[in-house]
Write a structure and sequence with these properties.
alpha+beta, 22 strands, 34% helix, 27% strand
Amino acid sequence: MKKRISSILLLVAAFVGLGLMSSCDKGGSDLKSMLKTVPADAPYVMAFNANPVLDQLEFKKDGDRYTFCKEVQEIVDLSGADKKIVNTVCEFIDATGKTLVLYGDGSDLETVWMTFSVNNQDEFVKLMEKVAKDNGGKLDFKEEGGYKMGADGIFAMKDNRVWMCSEKIDVKKIDKFADLGDDSFAEKNGKLTDRMCADNTVTATCVNLTECLSALRKMGGDSEVGILQSAMSLLFEDATYLFATSTLNNQGAESVAEILNSKYETAKFLLPVGKIEPAAMAKINNNAGVVAAINLPSELMSKISGLITTLNGGDSAEIKMITGILNSISGTLAVSVNGPEEIIASIPFTDEASATSFGELMAQGGMDCSVAGNYLVMRSKPGLQGGGSAPESFKGEFAAYNLNFANVPETLISGLDMKSLGKVSVTLGQYESGLRLNGKWECNRLIPTVCSLVRKGVAGYLTGEVKIPMLDGGQDYPEPDAYDSVYEEAVAEEVW
């Protein structure tokens, strides 16, 4: 069986290995035609297209071989990859329309379908047969209902269109897919289709929460469905879809994810949320490589405590301790990480007494703790203090994360200038009446730049020019103070 489907696996590896993504500026019309053959009740639909990635890779055919940009070619050479295999993977990619759709079967979450187009069906078959033969196998095809079937019936092809399935294919089902009309994903979910096919879209994923729960129930998961429905109704009003897209261009990559309602609008978020407070950011090192924060209003913590109690079937001694701590937290929790030995965490409490009580408890475990008003500040070693300007992306958000490669300390990695990798930020904030998760990686020519840094890092580590202290035994630090109630902090109004 493994030999008979070796070419299929190689094809899938080709897409995955080169970071297959979706970009509708070149594959939008092809993607839309594929979505017209996806059932409207599919529990999930994922669209991919290799074009933006291949553009950055400077992927092109030169005679009987394929070439890439200098940075990628250096990685290929450094890896020692078999050039024949690399060329075969490239042949597969070049032979397709470079757009692919994965989707689920509404009757069974474990059944996965994949479809994509090829430039020339006969040539594609020859390529598959050649790869199978080169790997010591044989790929037999047969005609069935107008389709060319192969790989023990999990592969079907007709009119330059390929279908693959995790189960043996019934060609009548493909015929049904091709004739869905108004019952197709593209026609019934036009607004979602337009977003999936928008210019510069890199990946697009739509999870139909209602259909997923229905399929899970059919599979005997009644109790799981009940829990999930309760959680969803607690968080959102009319939660129907989980929708996410991402883009890739020469300035970097961006992504957006949100819960939508049945009208394709951002679903209303039902729990109370606040905004990141400057007073909390003033207590951590905003110049650290990693900075993160989340606002935890008392109303939200109370609801979380209630949910924990409900899910655990009542108030045991352990649950009471946990919910007691959660109910005493109110405000913005902030963390800065500048390597494993330079961590500051600021935890907000309802009052100074609660912060002091929890600080004394943590100090018994050897943690260096200080109290600043109603905040408990915990440090990985004595002497660390807060300061610096908080990332602009944190303003007005409910939660945020920032990774600045220019600030990665030498205690983490030395001998490698990482500032060319730019910044990564992730924010979660209010959008309309709901929440929207945004991710952004600011980096010029992202994929070639990452490849270049990986090559330099590996080569430098092998020669000793690049050092990673964590892999070389780390460092020793003084024991933390048992408890310190004094903490110097930055001026809150100056951290923005």
